[in-house]
Amino acid sequence: MKEWFKNIENAPEGSAFPLARLLEELNFNDQGLIPVIAQDADSLAVLMFAWMNHDALLETLNTGRMCYWSRSRRSLWRKGESSGHTQKLHTLSTDCDGDVLLAKVSQRGAACHTHRRSCFYLKIGDEQVTISGAFIEE
Amino acid sequence: MKEWFKNIENAPEGSAFPLARLLEELNFNDQGLIPVIAQDADSLAVLMFAWMNHDALLETLNTGRMCYWSRSRRSLWRKGESSGHTQKLHTLSTDCDGDVLLAKVSQRGAACHTHRRSCFYLKIGDEQVTISGAFIEE
What we know:
4-stranded mixed beta sheet, homodimer
């Protein structure tokens, strides 16, 4: 755990630190990526899980639209650019050791490429896994 | 994306598949780990983000208590074993390509080692990052 995060962890609620410093301290992995959890700002459902590199994070902060890094295409992935299923950023947080981001978003249509609202539609039971998300129209 | 996930993605809600097959198909990374998002089953707040290996996943499914893999200690991490801040598993899901788990849990006390309810207490603003979680007693 980086010293910077350790140093601020006992600060009381409301304490503020320069964003520029956080951006230096965030823990991108050895591929230069940080995981991102996207959560519906209204329903609080977890919608999807993806990755950002430094450029994707800066673009997201600058535009207020979620931009990820596509590991398969090896390029910036402006969510909804082709599908129309954009995500508007509400609030962005990071965790106690700065190695993951949590984005609360307004999701237009389906977050999942299967046209389900959320990617987390495979519910694990005692002996079976069950499809637990419906297709949506928009 | 693995063929198995592709093959089931158009199945209607309620369709079920053998759990044993899912466990074979889940995408553990080259360190044998899969990311896990822990979400409060009541408030739906995202509490923490951690990793499981195959053994941690099986233990979690068998006991109904969250067991992670500690990358720093290189051992199974039975959440709350020393702090008492256990997590009881409610529902476990995976996403469309089986490379991340989402666990809805009953959290006892603080999920975060800083004694905050959630690890995601660093809120990123335009120019500042602000501490946005209070310490809790229990």
